[in-house]
């Protein structure tokens, strides 16, 4: 029997007027704060609306449920990383690209270390097939961007580049989430992540030169 692919979870609509945009963003900010305070299991649309100081009906105009909300938060986080990747891409290819990769991972690691909502959102979107499917689409957008960055570094790996990029992105997100768990050494985990990804790319680069 073939696997049923869940439809991505997206808002019912997006605001167009400035006042509505502020309400929309306020609800997302409230949801992000509550996710840190109470966790995903205890997160409710009623609490989000109350903290955002909007009627519950206003929230439901945009979001069907809390699963859609956390997926929208994940999309926001993805947009932030895409912007950083775009800046990173302007400096590749370069003889100094391993240093640039390290700098980029340091930036991502700082986001996860200083903003606990990053891990909270990432964990929340792993909770159901539909949220995982939506998060996978967001990761895929990043992976496509990474694949374009990898192109000049791995000219002979065009058939594998898409999968390489997906592995790189998912590995980075998974280990960054791991790095900020209680009892884990964040700096040492990030150091290992850098070694893993740089070593992987250096291996591919040397293979391409053969």
Blueprint of the fold:
Layout: H1 18-38, H2 45-52, H3 56-62, H4 66-89, H5 97-114, H6 117-124, H7 129-150, H8 161-179, H9 186-209
What's the end-to-end separation, in Å? 43 Å
Shape type: globular
- Low-confidence blocks of residues: none
Mean pLDDT reading:
86
Which structural class do you get from the secondary structure elements?
Answer: mainly alpha
Helix content: over 70%
Strand content: under 5%
- The Cα radius of gyration reads 19 Å
User: Biggest β-sheet: count, sense, barrel?
Assistant: none
**In oligomeric terms, what are we looking at?**
single chain
SSE topology string: HHHHHHHHH
For the secondary structure, the number of strands is 0
Annotation field: number of helices: 9
Question: How would you sum up this structure, described in words?
Answer:
The model has no long low-confidence stretch (mean pLDDT 86). With 210 residues, this protein is mainly alpha-helical. The longest helix has 24 residues.
Short key terms for the protein model shown above:
210 residues, mainly alpha, 72% helix, globular
């Amino acid at each position: 029997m073939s696997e049923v692919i869940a439809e991505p979870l997206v808002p019912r609509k997006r605001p167009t007027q400035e006042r509505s945009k502020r309400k929309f963003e306020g609800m997302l900010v409230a949801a992000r704060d509550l996710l840190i305070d109470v966790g995903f299991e205890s997160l409710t649309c009623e609490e989000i609306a109350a903290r955002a100081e909007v009627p519950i009906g206003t929230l439901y105009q945009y979001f069907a449920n809390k699963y859609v909300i956390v997926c929208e938060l994940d999309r926001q986080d993805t947009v932030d990383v895409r912007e950083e990747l775009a800046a990173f891409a302007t400096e590749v290819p370069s003889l100094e690209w391993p240093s640039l990769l390290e700098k980029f991972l340091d930036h991502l690691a700082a986001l996860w270390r200083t903003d606990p909502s990053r891990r909270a959102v990432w964990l929340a979107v792993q909770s159901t097939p539909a949220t995982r499917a939506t998060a996978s689409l967001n990761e895929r957008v990043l992976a496509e961007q990474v694949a374009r960055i990898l192109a000049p570094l791995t000219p002979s790996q065009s058939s594998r580049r898409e999968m390489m990029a997906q592995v790189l992105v998912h590995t980075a997100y998974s280990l960054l989430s791991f790095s900020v768990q209680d009892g884990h050494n964040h700096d040492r985990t990030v150091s290992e992540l850098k070694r893993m990804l740089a070593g992987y790319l250096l291996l591919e680069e040397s293979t391409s030169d053969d």
